[in-house]
Write a structure and sequence with these properties.
Two copies of one chain form a homodimer.
Chain A lengths: L3 E6 L3 H10 L5 E7 L17 E2 L3 H4 L6 E4 L7 H10 L3 E4 L2 H17 L4 E2 L11 H5 L6 E8 L2 H12 L4 H10 L8 H4 L2 H15 L9 E2 L7 H9 L2 E11 L5 E11 L11 E9 L2 E8 L3 H19 L26 E11 L4 H11 L4 E9 L4 E8 L2 E2 H13 L3 E11 L1
Parallel strand pairs in A: 1-2, 1-4, 2-3, 4-5, 5-6, 8-10, 10-17
Antiparallel strand pairs in A: 7-9, 7-11, 9-10, 11-12, 13-15, 13-16, 13-17, 14-15
Chain lengths: 423, 423
């Protein structure tokens, strides 16, 4: 085996994990590690601090380095650094989902011009092998649908809300105390993180460029303990689902939002910070991949896996891994959320008034929405009633219209929540 | 893209599935298909019967063919045919688990001598990507354990026994009527099929040659409706599990037998003919892969996937896919079932006699077996009692001894079943 020289950009949790795992592979030589603060104490035995630099360009401009591992994250200044690396003919292994979701198209173009490649298994679902399987062993398939739990933080919060009947706020606090959620949890709880991963996975699954700005996104902050309870009573559990579908007309439906998932569905069984992806295609049918979606060690499995595949290939050819080249010239036609079709869960507060349920039923019918379940959950102290409706498959725009019309009636006090349902 | 010529050996369900999927890949030219009976009517539109031959050597000896797809199955005469193909420098894509489990070592040796490769994703778990992920993107890992539901027929039978409370015989009959089980079901229900797949998967997971004859194997024919019922009451479901473990002393524990799987375990959720594999390693942690383990289309996904990866690689190098080369010089030291450690479920028929439970407890204790649950299930008409024991982790040889000693007592009428438990 030839020996290969790598530089690592970023030395936080994941970078340190990668460094430790690479100790078992002596043919991979770590030449330089770019960090923010070279003086920070590192918790690694016999660590040679001479490896550290605070200038990442010492890595990407070094003639001595073959492959750049980027685990720093973010778009600025990482985009410029990796552009320089590619233009210097370095291959890249990255875990940076935000960068790939926002700037992947540009980066892959520059990589192609320089005849180098970018591998990014770790950018989606941490340790779960999904990017390379889709690009290699599953490449005979036409993939029609991906549905995944791609964010561990929100799945942890929803699991605790379900199992311990906690409020969103209490569950978030616990997740923060345990280090599952950041002090500013926006990236996770508002669905940004899941949307980045979905953009990357949809691009390779549907072979079309996905615009991250056109992905409909709803987080979990508006899920109430009451919704979790009603869902449970109806045989569902609430999950933040990243959904990508290729429609019959060739358009692409990609979105991230909470869903009521039927308890018998394999995704409903996925608990705590675990990630899971269901992929459906022809001829393979349905596949489910489950595992740790974050953490130093699982992420290092994917980073070092990419690296080992790359160096094994570089030993036999100067034109490595043809399947790994991203070359989607076609742009996906992404549909608006209003044009999607779903089953729905609607939670309504109505006056305690004998006609309320009939009124809801009539108004839904007028908007082409069939109701499959309707449940009134007793009378509140203020003489209002909580009504839960589950609909059959309907068009989102029709449902939004129906809800607007409902609110015009005096007997409807509030639409407490609207969620989509996966059976 | 260059164009590649392939020959297909075997044209049953899987072969026909592969043929159909390959119609979407015009750069792969099917030159010849070897069948038993060239005159048999084939249910394929516009099929050119000139492709057929009843002599597979027309394929393996043809200078015109680059890659041989083998989906005929069995060891004889397939072994000799594939040996000839390798010696003629043909790459092979095969779904033949029995052949690889019994003769893989020889075939991989011959492939290596001829600088060609054998790909076999379809041989284990049909459409589920597992072989290539283990050999590529997961190659940074030390895999310590695999536990899988690798046989759809037995999982279907056990699911029906559980959900509809059927006897083994009735569930088998239904599986046969639906085409899930063969007229002679031995290969499935006695665990041979799962053992072949386990041998292949263990070899690549532990990087050591596994001797199929040393894999302990127990089928599902002795599972009674009563066992399913007791397991359910205790929070378990019974599954045929293919288990491979790397022990701390470096020895390998590989076996196929039914197990009580805790209901919260992801493998317990896998129903009907679905397959699932849990893989545990460092640094990735636990991964679970679930999907269709058989059937024309899922199997074709893996066969054509292997083929497309191979041809993409052959376009850039004459020395393809280094990770795909099997080169295990070391032979696994496989331990005997008596030396394994497990938790156990024991079903005992005892005389209805006040000392029976005490006697069992004392005797188990004497044999270093701690009991975690003991349950007497009422008194039978013949004045016997059914007693269910769940033990803590104990050595199999100790458990076998205890059961032998139990049977010497007049108060113990029968050991109805001994099963292992996975929590």
């Amino acid at each position: 085996m030839k020996s290969f020289n790598v530089g690592i950009i970023g030395f936080g949790t994941v970078g340190t994990g990668v460094f430790k795992v690479l100790q078992s592979f002596p043919d991979i030589k770590i030449k330089k590690i770019a960090v923010k603060n070279v003086n920070k104490k590192r918790n690694i035995e016999n660590f040679d601090t001479n490896l550290l630099t605070d200038n990442p360009y010492e890595i990407v401009n070094s003639p001595d380095i073959d492959i750049v591992i980027e685990v720093a994250g973010g778009v600025n200044p990482t985009f410029d650094i990796l552009k320089a690396a590619l233009n210097n003919k370095k291959h890249i292994v990255t875990a940076n989902k935000e960068l790939l979701a926002k700037k992947g198209s540009e980066l892959f173009q520059i990589a192609k011009q320089n005849n180098v490649i970018i591998l990014y298994e770790a950018a989606v679902a941490g340790g779960i092998p999904i990017i390379m399987p889709v690009k290699t062993i599953l490449c005979a398939n036409k993939i029609n649908r991906i549905a995944g739990i791609l964010n561990g933080t929100t799945n942890y919060i929803l699991t605790k809300m379900t199992e311990k009947e906690l409020s969103y706020e209490t569950a978030l606090k616990q997740a923060q105390d345990l280090g599952y959620a950041e002090t500013d949890p926006t990236g996770d709880v508002e669905g940004f993180d899941a949307a980045y991963k979905l953009a990357i996975l949809s691009t390779i699954s549907f072979n079309k460029k996905i615009d991250i700005n056109k992905i409909y996104r709803e987080g979990i902050t508006k899920i109430k303990a009451n919704d979790i309870k009603s869902a449970k009573e109806l045989g569902y559990t609430i999950k933040l689902i990243a959904l990508g579908q290729r429609l019959e007309n060739g358009k692409i439906d990609v979105r991230v939002h909470p869903m009521l998932v039927a308890k018998k569905h394999l995704l409903a069984q996925v608990k705590n910070a675990t990630n899971s992806i269901m992929l459906s295609g022809y001829p393979v049918g349905d596949l489910v991949f489950t595992g740790a979606g974050a953490g130093a060690e699982p992420t290092a499995s994917s980073v070092v896996g990419d690296l080992l595949v790359l160096v094994a290939d570089l030993e036999t050819t100067s034109n490595p891994i043809p399947q790994a080249v991203c070359n989607h010239t076609e742009t996906a036609e992404q549909i608006d959320i209003g044009d999607t079709f779903n089953e729905y869960y609607v939670s309504i507060t109505a006056s305690n008034h004998p006609g309320a349920i009939g009124f809801i039923g009539t108004l839904f019918g007028k908007n082409n929405i069939n109701i499959s379940t309707i449940m009134q959950k007793g009378i509140n102290e203020d003489n209002t009633a909580e009504i839960i409706v589950i609909t059959e498959r309907a068009k989102e725009a029709d449902v939004q219209n129906a809800l607007k019309e409902l609110l015009k009636s005096e007997s409807i006090k509030n639409i407490d929540n609207l969620l989509r349902v996966m059976n």
